[in-house]
Amino acid sequence: MLEIKNLHASIDDTKILKGLNLKVSTGEVHAIMGPNGSGKSTLASVIAGREDYDVTEGKIDFMNNELSELSPDERAREGIFLAFQYPVEIPGVSTTNFMKTAVNQVRKSKGEKPLDAVEFLKLMKEKMKLVNIKQELLSRSINEGFSGGEKKRNEIFQMAMLNPKLSILDETDSGLDIDALKIVSNGVNTLRSKDNATIVVTHYQRLLNYIVPDFVHVLMDGKIVKSGDKNLALELEEKGYDWIKVKN
Amino acid sequence: MVESLNLEKSISRELDKDVKLMKSNTLKNIKGSLKTYKEEYKYTPLFKKTANKIQINDSKLDYDIEKIKSSIPKNDDYKIIVIDGLYKEELSKIPSGVLINKYSDLSEDMKGEFQKAYRGFDDSKKDIFSSINTINHLECLTICVEKDVNIKNKISIINFTNSTQSSYFRKSILIKKSSYVSFSEEFLGSTEEISFSNSVSEIFLDENSKLDYFSCQNFRKNFHFNSINVFQRKDSISNFHTYSFSGATIRNNLNILLKDKNCYANMYGFYAIKNKSHIDNHTTVDHMDENSISNEHYKGIVEGGSRGVFNGKIYVRQKAQKTNAFQSNNNILLSDNAKVNTKPQLEIWADDVKCSHGCTVGQLDEDALFYLMSRGIPKKEATSILLSAFSSDITEKIEDDNLRKHYEELILSELEGLNYE
Amino acid sequence: MSKDDKILKEFTSKEYEHGWSVDFDVDQAPIGLNEDIVRLISKKKEEPNWLLNWRLEAFSQFKKMKEPDWSNLNIPKINYQDISYYSAPKKKKMLKSMDEVDPELIKTFEKLGISLLEQKRLSGVAVDAVIDSVSIGTTFKDKLSELGIIFCSFSEAVKEHPHLVKKYLGTVVPSKDNYFSCLNSAVFSDGSFCYIPKGVRCPMELSTYFRINASNTGQFERTLIIADQGSYVSYLEGCTAPMRDENQLHAAVVEIHAEKDAEVKYSTVQNWYPGDKNGKGGIYNFVTKRGICFGNNSKISWTQVETGSAITWKYPSCILKGDNSIGEFYSVAVTNNYQQADTGTKMIHIGKNTKSKIISKGISAGFSQNSYRGHVNVIKRAKNSRNFSQCDSLLLGNTCGAHTFPYIDIENKSSMVEHEATTSKIGEDQIFYCLQRGIDEENAIALIVNGYAKEVLKQLPMEFSVEAQKLLSLTLEGSVG
Predict the structure, then answer these.
(1) Which domain holds residue A169?
(2) Is the ipTM of this structure higher than 0.90?
(3) Chains with ≥3 Cβ pairs under 8 A against A?
(4) What predicted TM-score, i.e. pTM, was given to this entire model?
(5) CB-based contact B138:B169 (threshold 8 Å)
């Protein structure tokens, strides 16, 4: 589904990714771990197409398309979803209105008919249950005055609404208490299927107890330095990142 | 108004050829500054009885030098003494690294350096009172702070207005690269008669320099016009602290031009006025280039039949992306005969900026007052405590402990003189 | 919701939607401005002498006045002698009912989305349609008159209710108030009149739709709304004009009088032709709108969405004379290309315990200049008064300007005034967030802008709110990127 080859990316002339390789197939969950500043969030942003980053070398294939030619909204319509580490506030725009616009634009790009109010409401009600989010919250301005947990739940709710092929969860666990973490993970697990894939970017092993990955990669200094299965995460938790540094 | 001032006379007595040219050019353009007078002086019109005083004196100025000497603080602080616009070297004390001269005594080279600072920056030309100052002032004092000089102790500038007619003060300050200096300027009125004083200061901050500037106005009966025009080069910092108290009609213009990138300007003001006093603060900050910050906060307490006017303009030019500009004006009205006119104004031509302004006019917090009184504090003292708390946002910006105490005491004694209804 | 969506979908490559004109037989006064023209207009309207004299007095005053020059606008010289001051679709005889209206005219209004045929009206909105300078018909008249509500054209009111017109005309906006109100007083040709009797809550929205059709004409209409004790009315005003290369002048006057306990809500969606991308053509919109909260506990609320006009000069104001009266002003002003707007409000607090609220949202794009100008005045006897003002500006691109000129004058110690203003741009983060959800850039901006203006848009009646959102998007189309 996703194949990243020798990816180099920089921001304001500072090199962050320095030759990263990653292959993700449908049905898989990949965890990307690494210390602060290793380039985890940059990787998420680059896949989503954030323009602040310059891709200087390498390429990203998604569903056999070269992504570099696509704008962020085109990538989203191709099925890439980014759950933001810091979800953005947009005053005056309700999540409902926001999602309706997004869902119908995605449908339009696929040549499908837009949902009418009744169909949309039905879809929304169904997905709301998944992350235990209240209607009242969705009628408020997106993320404005939301607690940390509410913001992250709202991200997963949007993911459910848009039904992406590839979901990238950028530090979705940061700032969550254990109950919120369970709700969010439960949502993600329910959405897992053999047709989609998930990349979980995280700093802590804790999340991986709830979203169990097929593969774990350690990202350090802009490169994946070690890959393994879920036990690698446990090992990391125990020994710390220095363990890998020493080994290398 | 202007026709009756007989400004040609002031020009004809000027000896310096260049200065004479500057004066006559200003006179030619004075009609232009009249255009803005109506809006800019909407709340502070010049009344006839003061207008009559604008003309400069023909007779030689007389004053009691002993009396003046006695009111100069007896300490070792650096000080610059000016009487009715004339610099008194024998009474002054200047640190090394600072050169003080009359403009007419400067070498040709130095005149060249002061050219810009003397003639004024764009805005000063548009203002009617600055124009009159340009034409009528007798002597321009030049202060040059040399390169890489760091003067820790403040320099006091004490201006005496002695004339019963008008006094004109004019100075140009040049702060060279990477220097720091702090001025504390005072105006002392010695007459019981209404007179007119008009002061214009042009300040030039070169790259990476820093200036602290305190001005305090405490007149009895005076129409005082004060204009400070500032021009900042890159990485320079200016901090202005303006304190005005009762007893006069005071108009302050503070115009700051942030010409280059990465300039920083702070403007803090406080006024406490009573009786028939009138205080009008007009400020302008003009952001010309990227990444500069301006921060402005004026607070005032207006009592009796007095009037407090605030007009703050922020300009952010097209080139000045990533500007941060903040402005606020808070007023407390203590009487139904007092008035506040405030106009915080923003003009923005760049999109990547953060600008905000706010102003409030209101009263003391009744709940807080009640709380204090319920603890046994009499109303008058409780009010005084709350009012000085109101002023503390401004005074706490003064880094120098002694100076801050000085201003806190001034405010306290001013507050004690207020009548709370 | 489905309406919202429709708007976004209609957000295609349309430019100014109402830029067509229709040929019908018109009765137009010769070009020029003089006393004879004033007399001619009055004669055509078969006006009583007192009104003619009122016009003539205004005209003699007008000749002594100068155009205001204090605004932040660059107004090209207007040749007032080069305008026709009266243009009306020709009528063969007095119309007895809507059925007799020229079918061409009915079609014109249908193109605008307004049906003059009552059976076709969807919701309870009564419409007075004014084309060029003349009211061509008012709908739902009978139903309203059952409640004692008078809603008719201004000329009809002069004939049928002269005592009311005479009593209130020029009391809120005196003819010599300013240059343009004075011009209007001399040459106004028609407009709307509305009277809500004591204790009556008007059951439907009253609406005036203005259309400038003829070329070389100015439009000078007057609206007079009187809300008697304890009454309520919500009034809507919409405007469009054809695309023409020359600039056309629109100088209207709106007066509102609210008695004790009365409430008037006045909403405007102003969509006059703004000129083309290069600033050619467009309407000069110089309008004086003012309401007086005359009685205690009365309330006047202005809501405006300003997207059109080449130049806008407009300050809907409230004089809060009655004790406990309330004035409100909600505004969204959008300027794009070479448009200029200088708009805002005045809140004059005279009565005790009076309250006012100002919410102004400016959006500038292209090469436009957008200014907010406001005046809050609390006089000495207006004890315990309150004002809150919030003025925000949004800039799209760095070739436009946003300006804020608030004047705040307070003269007593028991009142509280708060003013806040901010200037910002649309956050890159916000746009990226929308893009990441699959929303394209134009829709993302429309979404964010409508969110920014929400506080004002929600004040509008539903139908108008939808139209306003659509207009915001259309006006800003292509301004980003």
Answers:
(1) 2-247
(2) no
(3) C
(4) 0.84
(5) no
